[in-house]
Amino acid sequence: MIGAVLAGGRGRRFGGDKLLFRINGKPLLLYTLEKLERAEKIDEIVLVASKENAEKLEGFGYEVLIDGLMVGPMGGIYTALSLGDAFVVAGDMPLLVPEFIDFIVERFEETKKLACVPRWGNGYLEPLHAAYSSSFRGFLEERIKSGNYAINRAIRESDACYIEIEKLPENWRESFFNVNTREDLGRLSPLIF
Ligand SMILES: Nc1nc2c(ncn2[C@@H]2O[C@H](COP(=O)(O)OP(=O)(O)OP(=O)(O)O)[C@@H](O)[C@H]2O)c(=O)[nH]1
């Protein structure tokens, strides 16, 4: 199972390249990568980046796949699946919980569905913390061709399995925390140090 980290965003809300922004001397992306490294079900990590930021990311020592679409998460997932089945996460999720990732990958392997996606009680999905089959790529391709880039809708209209978040240990929810703005960093510091 590949661990694919989406790292092609523009960081408009943050106002700059948030993934390279240093917290306690360490780039935000490195926190995410270190957590993902600790998931036992992940065999190999790759970064999925834009052509423009690929070079800067090569220094992290992982294969960098170029997202030639740049249409948001769907394009990143589509690109990642060119290598095989993948657990896909956003690069701005520094508090990933490795046991939770293993849990999702195990469920994915057991159910053999096109995707296994965490879901909140209100129906909200967490598509950037989910496992996808390489067969899901063909399903996405049709949508991309018709300009339909809504990933949640694609998941809902596919044969996916859902992981009910409220039934899991509460501390696993930390895994979904992501940095969008500079204010979010304030919420992060007490948790990281
Ligand atoms: N490969 C790839 N990664 C993306 C794309 N859009 C967003 N990402 C990544 O997905 C994660 C979540 O992205 P967002 O925070 O929603 O978007 P962002 O562009 O980084 O930030 P905003 O401009 O503030 O929306 C981040 O790690 C981004 O780097 C894309 O089109 N392709």
UniProtKB/TrEMBL annotation:
Gene3D superfamilies: Spore Coat Polysaccharide Biosynthesis Protein SpsA, Chain A
Enzyme Commission code(s) on record: 2.7.7.77
Keyword Flavoprotein set for record: no
Binding-site residues, Mg(2+): 92
Coiled-coil boundaries: none
Cofactor(s) named in the record: Mg(2+)
GO molecular function, a single term: metal ion binding
Main localization, broad class: cytoplasm
Functional summary from the UniProt entry: Transfers a GMP moiety from GTP to Mo-molybdopterin (Mo-MPT) cofactor (Moco or molybdenum cofactor) to form Mo-molybdopterin guanine dinucleotide (Mo-MGD) cofactor.
Name of the protein in question: Probable molybdenum cofactor guanylyltransferase
